[in-house]
Fold this protein.
Amino acid sequence: MLVRKLADCPEFVAGDGTLLRELLHPEKQEIELRYSLAHAIVPVGQVSIPHSLKTSEVYYILSGVGEMHIDDEVQVVRAGDAVYIPPNARQFIRNVGHEAIVFICIVDPAWRKEDETVY
């Protein structure tokens, strides 16, 4: 059984500028998993850097309010919302609330640096 505690996962600044903690990644743990799972934070007044992935991604918003940008679409997202981001879509999220936006990221297949383009 593998149990990963968020507090035990080192926090780092991701290529898109979010504060990230990787919970599960098949290249970092000996698990048979197709996707990667991470915990992300965008502080108040901040915005992630526009980027795209060759893979699909899902954000599940845990807290906060954001303005999600996917290609030419913009929509307000908040706790309880799941956002599907198709492969190769230009995306970023802007914190428009009064608390940090906290969300879970699922990337399928698992995130790889060579699959990401930061604008």
Q: What stands out?
A: The mean pLDDT is 97. The chain has no helices and eleven strands. The first strand starts at residue 12 and ends at 13. The chain has one domain: 20-118.
